[in-house]
Structures are given as structure tokens and as C-alpha cells.
């Protein structure tokens, strides 16, 4: 058990929360005998300062040789005029690793946080869906035209790009019994690439995942329904790069707590137990992936020990689950986080960072999580 990690803490609060999440990994190593080899390197502003580039060729090469990449966050105002900008480092790593499926869960790590949502508790309560965003194609890539009076971003999708990301949705759905329902989100009423997306998606599900309930949903109407009826989409939502970008930010807003949200970017479908080697598989039979919190480097609170470590810790749980097939350990970490966030509800001490309206610092919150992980 275990494997090789490339750890890129990045800038500002990145290193602060990454080091706390790695303490949780230490505890898991002790408890299970798993061994995670850790190679630390630079990305973003830290890499610009040392190498005059947001990421080096050496780091890019390492990113495709390890079993998983654990990322903090990159950027900050001090690199505001840098060429390239610090955030470009992460984009180059994503492209090098071909991590085309970006997963953003939308649920509540803790029931007692439901009241932080801008949505009424009776509407948001019980929400539990994951957005799978195609992250290596579509309108964000391809040959762009930028002229004085004309701009154009070709919004293209090829069969292979559609197939590989909807297979991630199908495989994830099949990890549940009964399988999770899947919504394929597009604008097939106006976009040609959407109509191709929709047709190929149905082909793949019919052939490869006949047990999964797959439905179509228009992106604009989903944007509204996520606010008025979010629990109607409990399950998986798979969509292209543009819609996924917008809808996943919207779903992050539903929870009202940026510091709590994890993400995973995968290079292939999650491996079924005992599966053959396949697309994006790593040396330990998991899937190659990059894991990072949704939030950025939060320069406004960095260096003060105030950052909420939960988004980074929950990203670690996703890494254990998808890259190392350690589902049980992932659940232990998620339960520990929920316990700490619910500590007041249990009549215990309230341990919460400032972004959640509490007074705890990063260390206090992290120690509480570590304590719970040891107990579980
Ligand atoms: P941000 O997510 O860093 O911060 C937004 C607000 O949320 C700030 O008030 C911050 O203090 C708060 N916040 C964020 N994470 C928190 C945490 N863990 N605990 C407590 N409070 C937290 O977004 P912002 O300010 O737009 O960007 C700051 C820098 O981060 C920029 O340079 C941006 O480009 C970069 N960034 C990097 C990302 C990445 O590495 N993937 C993603 C988003 C932004
Ligand atoms: Mg976005």
C-alpha cells in the first residue's frame, strides 16, 4: 500500500494547509503500514522566484512519473506582472498530466454547516452531487484568434475527448449499488458540438454502462435548478469545460464555504478492484490524479495561521480514494472532518476557523482533525 507523491505546496496559504494535510497522511501511514514517498517541489510564484518560470521542465516530467500529485495553491499579488503568471504553472501541469476529468463534490462535510449556505436549509439539506468537468479541451484550448476587431475561440470536441470523460462518469456511477444517476449537461438546442457530445455520451452509456440511468439536461436550466432544486441532481453531473467551469463555481457557492471544498483531476476512470491496467492507471492500480482544494492562495490571510485546512485535507481523502484505492481510509478522514465541524452540535468544543465564523487557527483545527482520525 502507498506510492509515490509529488507535492507542490505553491504559495501563501498553500504550504500552510498542505503541511497540515500531510500530518493526517502520517497518521494513516502509521495505522495501515502504507508508505508514501514524498517529493516536494515548486510551482507558481515560488518557482518564478527561483527559476524565473511558473513550473520547470523537471517538475513537469516528475508530474507524469508519480502516482499522484498533491497541490496547494499558486499565485499572489507580488507576481501580478510576472511573465508567465504564477497560475500558468498549474495549467501546464494539468495539460502535461492529461488530467481531463475534474471532479468537484458538492455536499456538506458537516450537517451543522448547512446554515452557512446562502440557500434555505430546507432546499439545500441533503444535497450530494459531484460535477465532472471536461478539463483538457473545448473552448479553452485550440487555435484562438485575437485581433483588433475580432475574437474567436473554437469550441470543438472530438469523439475521443468525449468518450474518455463520460467513461469516468460511468465508472464512478458503477462504484455505487444501485449505480448513481448521471446527468449529461450541454446546450444541444443551439451548439453543434453539444449535439455530438450528447449522441456519443448515449452511445457509451448504452454500450458500456447499461445499468446507469443517464439523462440530458440543458446547462442554462441547470444553472437555475441548482439553486431552486439542488437535491434533484444528487448523483453525478458530467459536462464540458465551459459549462463545467461555471456550474462548478456555482455549486461551490451553494455550500457557502470556500475553505471546505476539495477537488480531484483524474487522467482516467477510477479503477475497479482487480481491474486490468488501463487509461491513466498508476503504478499501484489507482488512477493518476492531481488533488487540490478549490480555494486559491488567500494572500489576505497568509502567514497568520488562520487558513482553514479542511479543503486540503478533504483533497487528501480524494487522493487516497482514487489514486490509492484506500476507500476506507478516505472515509475515515471525511468522517473525522465532519466530527470536528459538528463538535458544537455534540456538546463539545467549537473548533472552527474564521471563515466559518469561529476563532480557531489552522493548527488547532488541524489537531482536532488529527485526533479524530487517530480515534476512528
Ligand atoms: P482565494 O480563494 O485565494 O480567496 C478568496 C477569499 O476566501 C479570501 O478572502 C480568502 O481569505 C478566503 N479563503 C480562501 N481559502 C481559504 C481558507 N482555506 N481558509 C480561510 N479563508 C480562505 O481567491 P482569490 O483571492 O481570488 O485569489 C488569490 C490568489 O490565488 C490569486 O493569485 C489567484 O490567482 C490564486 N488562485 C489560485 C488557485 C489555484 O492555485 N488553483 C485557484 C484560485 C485562485
Ligand atoms: Mg472557475
What labels would you give this structure?
single chain; 376 residues; Isopropylmalate Dehydrogenase; 2 domains; two-stranded antiparallel ribbon; 12 helices; 12 strands; binds 1,4-dihydronicotinamide adenine dinucleotide; binds magnesium ion; metal-binding
Describe this structure as you would to a colleague:
The protein has about 375 residues and is α/β, with parallel strands linked by helices. The chain has two domains: about 1-115 and about 255-265 and about 275-375, Isopropylmalate Dehydrogenase; about 125-255, 3-Layer(aba) Sandwich (Isopropylmalate Dehydrogenase). Helix content is about 40%, strand content about 15%. The protein has helices at about 15-30, 45-50, 55-65, 90-95, 120-125, 160-175, 190-210, 220-230, 240-255, 310-325, 325-340, 360-375; strands at about 1-10, 35-40, 70-75, 100-105, 130-135, 145, 150, 180-185, 215-220, 235-240, 260-265, 290-295. The strands form two sheets. The chain has a ten-stranded mixed β-sheet, with helices on both faces. Helix 8 packs parallel to helix 9 (about 240-255). The radius of gyration is 20 Å and the shape is globular. The protein starts with a strand and ends with a helix. 1,4-dihydronicotinamide adenine dinucleotide (NAI) binds near residues 13 and 258. Pfam families: Iso_dh.
Terminal Cα span? 19 Å
Q: In the CATH scheme, what's the topology name of the largest domain? A: Isopropylmalate Dehydrogenase
The tally of domains stands at: 2
* Ligand catalogue: 1,4-dihydronicotinamide adenine dinucleotide, magnesium ion
Portion in helices: 25-40%
Assembly status = single chain
CATH superfamily annotation of the largest domain: Isopropylmalate Dehydrogenase
Looking at the overall shape, the CATH architecture of the largest domain is 3-Layer(aba) Sandwich
Classify the beta-strand content into a percent band.
15-25%
Amino acid at each position: 500500500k502507498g506510492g509515490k507523491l509529488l507535492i507542490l505546496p505553491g504559495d501563501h496559504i498553500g504550504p500552510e494547509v498542505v503541511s497540515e494535510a500531510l500530518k493526517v497522511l502520517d497518521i494513516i501511514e502509521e495505522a495501515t503500514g502504507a508508505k508514501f514517498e514524498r517529493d516536494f517541489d515548486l510551482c507558481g510564484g515560488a518557482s518564478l522566484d527561483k527559476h524565473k518560470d511558473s513550473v520547470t521542465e523537471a517538475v513537469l516530467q516528475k508530474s507524469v512519473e508519480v502516482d499522484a500529485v498533491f497541490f496547494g495553491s499558486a499565485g499572489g499579488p507580488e507576481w501580478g506582472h510576472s511573465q508567465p503568471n504564477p497560475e500558468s504553472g498549474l495549467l501546464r501541469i494539468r495539460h502535461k498530466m492529461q488530467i481531463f476529468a475534474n471532479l468537484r463534490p458538492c455536499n456538506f462535510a458537516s450537517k451543522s454547516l448547512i446554515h452557512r449556505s446562502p440557500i434555505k436549509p430546507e432546499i439545500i439539506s441533503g444535497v450530494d452531487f459531484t460535477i465532472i468537468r471536461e478539463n483538457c479541451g473545448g473552448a479553452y484550448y485550440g487555435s484562438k484568434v485575437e485581433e483588433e476587431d475580432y475574437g474567436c475561440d473554437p469550441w470543438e470536441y472530438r469523439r475521443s475527448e468525449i468518450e474518455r470523460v463520460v467513461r469516468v462518469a460511468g465508472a464512478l456511477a458503477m462504484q455505487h449499488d444501485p449505480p448513481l444517476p448521471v446527468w449529461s449537461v450541454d446546450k444541444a438546442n443551439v451548439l453543434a458540438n453539444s449535439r455530438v457530445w450528447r449522441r456519443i455520451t448515449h452511445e457509451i452509456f448504452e454500450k458500456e454502462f447499461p445499468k446507469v440511468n443517464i439523462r440530458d439536461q440543458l446547462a442554462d436550466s441547470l444553472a437555475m435548478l441548482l439553486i431552486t432544486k439542488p437535491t434533484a441532481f444528487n448523483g453525478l453531473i458530467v459536462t464540458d469545460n465551459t459549462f463545467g467551469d461555471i456550474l462548478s463555481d456555482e455549486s461551490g457557492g451553494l455550500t457557502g464555504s470556500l475553505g471546505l471544498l476539495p477537488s480531484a483531476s483524474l487522467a482516467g476512470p477510477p479503477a475497479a478492484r482487480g481491474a486490468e491496467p488501463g487509461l491513466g492507471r498508476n503504478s499501484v492500480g489507482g488512477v493518476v490524479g492531481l488533488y487540490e482544494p478549490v480555494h486559491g492562495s488567500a494572500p489576505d490571510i497568509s502567514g497568520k495561521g488562520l487558513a482553514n485546512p479542511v479543503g486540503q485535507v478533504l483533497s487528501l481523502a480524494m487522493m487516497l480514494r482514487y489514486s490509492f484505492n484506500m476507500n476506507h481510509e478516505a472515509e475515515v478522514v471525511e468522517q473525522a472532518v465532519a466530527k470536528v465541524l459538528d463538535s458544537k452540535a455534540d456538546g463539545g468544543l467549537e473548533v472552527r476557523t474564521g471563515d466559518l465564523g469561529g476563532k480557531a487557527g489552522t493548527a488547532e483545527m488541524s489537531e482536532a482533525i488529527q485526533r479524530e482520525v487517530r480515534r476512528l
